[in-house]
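User: Fold this; C-alpha cells only.

Assistant: Input:
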Amino acid sequence: MKQFLGAVGLAAALSLSAGHSFAADVTLRISLQLPLKSHLGENLVLFKDEVEKTSNGEIAVEIYDSAQLYTDKEVPAAVGAGSIEMGVASLTRYYGDVPAVDIFYQPFLFDTEEKVRKAVAKGSPIRGPIDAAIAETGSTVLWWQAYGGAIMLSNGGPLKTPADMKGKKVRVFGKTLGDFTEATGGAPTMVSGSEQYLAYQRGTVDIGMTGVSGVKSRKLWEVMDTITITNHADIEFIVVANTEFWKSLSDKHRALIEAAATKAENDVRDRMASIEAEAYAAAKENGMQIYTPTAEELAEWRKASQPVYDAFKAKTGALGEEMLKAAETF
C-alpha cells in the first residue's frame, strides 16, 4: 500500500495541499481517486472551503486527488488503520466487510431519483444499517456523494440486450456488478476507476461500466465511442474519517465539520441531474453515440438479472431481506 508522501517539497506540488496548514490546529488530509475537476473533486473543494472558513483557519484541509496517495480500493483500509485522516471510496469497496452495501447495485432496483433519495437519506432503513456497519471497520461515514446511474461503454455500437455481452470482457468495480455481468453473459474484470482509461485503450476489457460524469472527467471518449444508458445501478461514493481521529477532535470542530459535510452532501445530490446532463452533452460533442434501450430491451436485461438478487439474498441474509423489502416501499 502506498504510504503518505510527507516531504514538504512534494506536498507543495500536490493538488490543493494547504500551504497555510502549519498554522492550523488540525489538518485533514483527504485521498480521492478521481481528478479534482470531477464533480466529486469539486464537492471536496466546497467542503474544504467551508471548513476552513467556519473554523477561522483552525482546521486545514488538504486534498490529494487522482489516486496520488491511495487508489479507490486502498482507501477503506488506509482510513480504517489511520494511515490518513479521511478518504473517498466507492461504496462497493466495503463489500468485503459489509455485503449489504451492494443493495445499490441490485439491477434496476433504484431506477428513479425519488427512490435513490429515500434510500440514501441519513438514518433510512437502508443507509442507517450501512453507516453503522462501516463504523465497525474503524471508519466514520461523514457524507455520501452521488455519482449517478451506471452506464455501459463500448466500441462499435450500443449494447442493446444481454446477447451483446456474450463472451465480452467487462470492466466492473464491485462484486455485484460482476454477478450482473456473468448473469448477462459477460466476463467481469475488476479495474479501479483511475485505471480504466488504460484498460479501454489497451483492450484489457471490451466493455465498461461507470457513471457518465466519469466519462467527462476522464475523457473516456478518447478510448470508447458508445454509451448505452442502462442505469442498471445507483453509484454512490462515501467520505469517511478514521474513527479514532474523529473522536479525538473537539466537540466544536466535529460540529462544524459535520455541518460542512451536510452542506456538501446536499449540494452534490441536488446537482446530480444537471451534472449528468452536462456529461452526456460533452460526450456527444466529442463524438460518442448515446443509446437508450427500448422498454422491450430493458425487460430482457431485467429478466437476465434475477440471479443477482438471489446471490445478494444468500450473502446478506436477514439484513438483505429487510433492505429489499424497504426498497419495495419506496
